[in-house]
Amino acid sequence: MKKTLISVAVLGAMSSAAFAQSNVTIYGIVDAGIVSERGGKAGNVTKVSSGNANASRIGFRGTEDLGGGLSAIFTLETGYKVDDGQLDASNTLFNRQAFVGLRSATAGTITVGRQYTPWYNALAQVADPFAAGLAGSAKNLFPANGANLRNSNAVVYQTPVFNGFSGEVFYGFGEQSESSAGRQLSAALSYANGPLNARLAYNNRNNDTATGVAPTQQRDIGHNSLLAVNYDFKVAKAFFAYGQNKGLNSSTLPNAAAYTTAPITASTDTRNGLVGVQIPVAASGKVIASVIHTDDRESFNRDANQWAIGYMHDISKRTTAYASYAKIDNKNGASYTVGGNSEVGTGDTAFNVGIRHSF
């Protein structure tokens, strides 16, 4: 009997020790507000909208200490809409992120699954003072949608940080009968030291389609390059970004039929420029502003300009109230719209006010 009790006690202690080395976190964002849109063929649209500043989501993040500075990690994250309670992507459970991998303090991190591209991370994390959200989101004019944003079947490697420098490489398998068809490559080089944060990113998307019967349909390569910089002057943080986009699907339009019956064909040669600022107000607020220009290098010359202003106020560590306004000036029949983080918008003007809670 004593041996049995001792054995149970030892097993219990070992189980507790193993459990203590693992950590699973449930996290999420609940974001909703009122949005008023103007200027599109849909007329004036006022609605309750989810995910204006950040997409509403719930996720599970876990780590297990494997010893020797090595850890197993995973993330499963799904998006939902606060206004009606539905998933924000039909027939997909973990549509935002779903990956598993290994992290080493000395060798870096490798993950496999559905993940963000380094190009999009550079835009949202470094370039945009609105952090890709609210009416002033850089996603309104920069080509940050579809495969440029995140992709499935991806392997990502991130280096450790060396004297402020780090790198990230992304490879997305096309999983077609022709190995290069649908393949995506993306990479970024980052430098963060003190008030300076800079990142250079590149994305390459093979648009070929392999039918398995006929020869592979050759559909060109989409290229996206982005230089993103911000600098914190304490009294204000300044932002700058410049992007080049060439090839098929390099500048896809989120709402190509916002102003016309037939969708506008997206350009295959554009440039983007952004300047912006965040200005702290007292201890818990900040004013945000940006100006973005899109230069269409094709003969249609469908340029666009966006200016935006917003305010975010931290009610607590987890809860933030926000308001923002943005206006786009489309040239020569361009079809850019003012959206937010989760919705593409219906017109050239939008105002939103709401609240975001993180847990």
TrEMBL record:
<dbReference type="GO" id="GO:0015288">
    <property type="term" value="F:porin activity"/>
</dbReference>
<keyword id="KW-0813">Transport</keyword>
<feature type="domain" description="Porin">
    <location>
        <begin position="8"/>
        <end position="332"/>
    </location>
</feature>
<dbReference type="GO" id="GO:0009279">
    <property type="term" value="C:cell outer membrane"/>
</dbReference>
<dbReference type="GO" id="GO:0034220">
    <property type="term" value="P:monoatomic ion transmembrane transport"/>
</dbReference>
<keyword id="KW-0406">Ion transport</keyword>
<dbReference type="GO" id="GO:0046930">
    <property type="term" value="C:pore complex"/>
</dbReference>
<protein>
    <submittedName>
        <fullName>Porin</fullName>
    </submittedName>
</protein>
<comment type="subunit">
    <text>Homotrimer.</text>
</comment>
<keyword id="KW-0472">Membrane</keyword>
<keyword id="KW-0812">Transmembrane</keyword>
<keyword id="KW-0998">Cell outer membrane</keyword>
<dbReference type="InterPro" id="IPR050298">
    <property type="entry name" value="Gram-neg_bact_OMP"/>
</dbReference>
<keyword id="KW-0626">Porin</keyword>
<dbReference type="Pfam" id="PF13609">
    <property type="entry name" value="Porin_4"/>
</dbReference>
<keyword id="KW-1134">Transmembrane beta strand</keyword>
<keyword id="KW-0732">Signal</keyword>
<dbReference type="InterPro" id="IPR023614">
    <property type="entry name" value="Porin_dom_sf"/>
</dbReference>
<dbReference type="InterPro" id="IPR001702">
    <property type="entry name" value="Porin_Gram-ve"/>
</dbReference>
<dbReference type="InterPro" id="IPR033900">
    <property type="entry name" value="Gram_neg_porin_domain"/>
</dbReference>
<feature type="signal peptide">
    <location>
        <begin position="1"/>
        <end position="20"/>
    </location>
</feature>
<dbReference type="InterPro" id="IPR002299">
    <property type="entry name" value="Porin_Neis"/>
</dbReference>
